[in-house]
Design brief:
Length: 227
């Protein structure tokens, strides 16, 4: 299948048609997934199988898609059927029965990048979720991904090693959660994974990009935290 055609300079996001993807949209979704991760290392993004994507379309989740004519320009997944090893309720301090959804992947065609589609995909899925708790994962090196999530109300809650032992931020957006006002804050470099991991394990949260490229600004939990 060929990639999405390049939009002309006159086209904007208003030219896109948004709708829920159906099982028959699997070829377009899989092709866009492969296109979106082309040239990216496993440390940065997790390749998904066609079978996994098909399962989402068959009912394990909901997938919002943005179409330009017959071409799929972007999609975002909201997954509700979570595997046990993919369930962070205990880590996030949530009750076992708390409603929890995952933002389980998104893709934007190269021709449509730089127009805010990632944040639109997040916002639409947040609206779908209502009052449910939400989480997502993103590699520290995938800066555009976690910056978009932070901008949409998520915070970095933990640093895990997943998908073959690669570092991943666990980000969450929890109903009623509030950060401590005036709490100590620190900015840690993108490559200071041990330092970030240590603070996150103490209850600090990543709330915003730092001033240095790729860095993360973290704030201490209520009651402080080790400086």
């Amino acid at each position: 299948m060929s990639h999405s055609p390049l939009p002309s300079a006159s086209l904007t996001l208003a030219a896109l048609d948004w709708r829920l993807l159906q099982p028959e949209d699997l070829p377009a979704m899989h092709a866009l997934h492969l296109c979106s991760i082309e040239g990216m290392a496993a440390q940065t993004v997790k390749p998904e199988t066609r079978e996994f994507l098909h399962g989402l379309l068959l009912g394990r989740g909901r997938v919002i898609g943005a179409w330009h004519g017959a071409a799929l320009a972007a999609y975002g997944v909201l997954q509700h059927d979570l595997l046990a090893q993919d369930d962070p309720r205990a880590l996030l301090g949530l009750a076992p029965g708390q409603v929890l959804y995952k933002l389980a992947g998104a893709a934007v065609a190269p021709a449509w990048r730089g127009q805010g589609l990632q944040r639109q995909l997040i916002a639409r899925r947040v609206a779908w979720a209502g009052d449910a708790a939400l989480f997502a994962t993103a590699a520290p090196g995938n800066v555009p991904s976690w910056r978009s999530l932070l901008a949409c109300g998520f915070t970095v809650r933990a640093l895990q090693y997943r998908y073959g032992g690669h570092a991943r931020y666990l980000l969450a957006r929890l109903p009623g959660a509030a950060l401590a006002q005036g709490a100590p804050a620190r900015e840690l470099a993108q490559d200071d994974i041990p330092g970030q991991e240590a603070l996150l394990a103490q209850g600090w949260q990543g709330i915003a990009p730092g001033q240095a490229p790729g860095s993360l600004r973290l704030v201490a939990p209520t009651g402080g935290g080790q400086p």
